[in-house]
Design goal:
Elements: E1 3-9, H1 12-25, E2 31-35, H2 59-71, E3 79-85, H3 94-107, H4 114-123, E4 124-129, H5 134-137, H6 141-146, H7 169-173, H8 191-199, H9 211-220, H10 224-228, H11 236-249
Parallel strand pairs: 1-2, 1-3, 3-4
């Protein structure tokens, strides 16, 4: 019987391409990846988060509500995987992000009974791409070409992709300009801004990179095996995602490695991995 895995995404790139990207990895399994919503749900990680959450309803509550709505429907998928970018704002404090999700799940009325709580524990997961999906494109040179890059990338050879750092002098030399497509003060750590530069280093056609086109093309056929072989290794958030997916399918992870301690599978969490 086909295992149905519902995907909840928060970005345009992932909404268009994460399902086929994952399906390529698990092509030998009887699995169907399907979008839970016609559009991405609102990301809750765009700004720096602290724990506990401020009073009142927040975007993390809406994010968890999307999981609840999916798993509670009559024809719910077998598993629900909600995926968001961690974003630079939270890359140093992912424990705050995870704690906010846990709190929102625990506060949900949908967990009112033991049976309902068990459903979330057995069938629902939340994972993060660090700091954002574009970081992984740099693990496959051909993906950068599909994403529109016009020149090779220059990254810090001592740091793995989830600790993304550009050392490209042409990229870093220009003065910072607020609200510019790529010349932000934090650009050396920002995969998307570097990708925008690689698309248009002369700034003649600013805004050339689009998640809905170049991002989609890079992710849909991303060679994840090559991404995981990138040196140095250490993409633990991505390892958690693939390990969890493999467990849902009853197989070994296609990319064995160290999972992130905050998002690895756990037997007694509020979700499969939190």
């Amino acid at each position: 019987m086909t295992t149905r895995i519902g995907l909840i995404t928060t970005g345009d790139c992932e909404q268009r391409a994460l399902a086929p990207s994952l399906a390529r990895v698990f092509a030998d399994q009887d699995v169907q990846f399907e979008l839970c919503f016609a559009r991405p749900v609102h990301s809750f990680t765009s700004n720096r988060l602290s724990h506990p959450a401020p009073p009142g309803r927040t975007y993390v509550d809406d994010f968890v509500a999307a999981i609840v709505a999916t798993i509670s429907q009559r024809n719910a998928p077998d598993f629900v995987f909600a995926v968001d970018d961690l974003e630079l704002a939270n890359a140093a404090t992912p424990h705050h992000v995870v704690a906010l999700v846990r709190d929102a799940v625990l506060a949900s009325p949908a967990r009112a009974t033991h049976r309902e709580a068990q459903r979330f524990q057995d069938r629902c997961s939340v994972h993060f791409l660090c700091p954002m999906v574009e970081a992984y494109f740099f693990g496959e040179p051909a993906a950068l070409l599909r994403a529109g890059a016009t020149r090779p990338a220059e990254l810090d050879a001592t740091r793995h992709l989830e600790a993304f750092t550009s050392v490209d002098p042409s990229f870093l030399a220009s003065p910072s300009v607020r609200d510019h497509p790529w010349r932000s003060e934090d650009r050396k750590l920002h995969p998307k801004r570097y990708l925008k530069f690689l698309n248009d280093p002369t700034e003649e056609n600013m805004g050339r990179y689009r998640e809905t086109r170049q991002g989609r093309d890079a992710l849909a056929t991303l060679d994840w095996a090559q991404v995981f072989m990138y040196e140095p290794t250490g993409i633990a958030f991505a390892s958690s995602l693939f390990d969890d997916l493999a467990d849902a399918l009853g197989i070994a992870s296609p990319f064995p490695g160290t999972c992130h301690p905050l998002t690895e599978r756990r037997p007694n969490g509020v979700l499969r991995n939190l």
